[in-house]
Amino acid sequence: MRRRHLRGVMAIERQVYPRPWSANLFLSEMSDERTRVYLVARVDREIVGYAGMNCWSEEAHVTNIAVNPRWHRKKIGTRLLYELMRSAPQLGARAVSLEVRVSNLGAQQLYERFGFRPIGVRKNYYQEVGEDALMMWVDEVYTAEYGDKIGDIIDALPERVRP
Question: What's 39's DSSP letter?
Answer without folding.
Answer: E
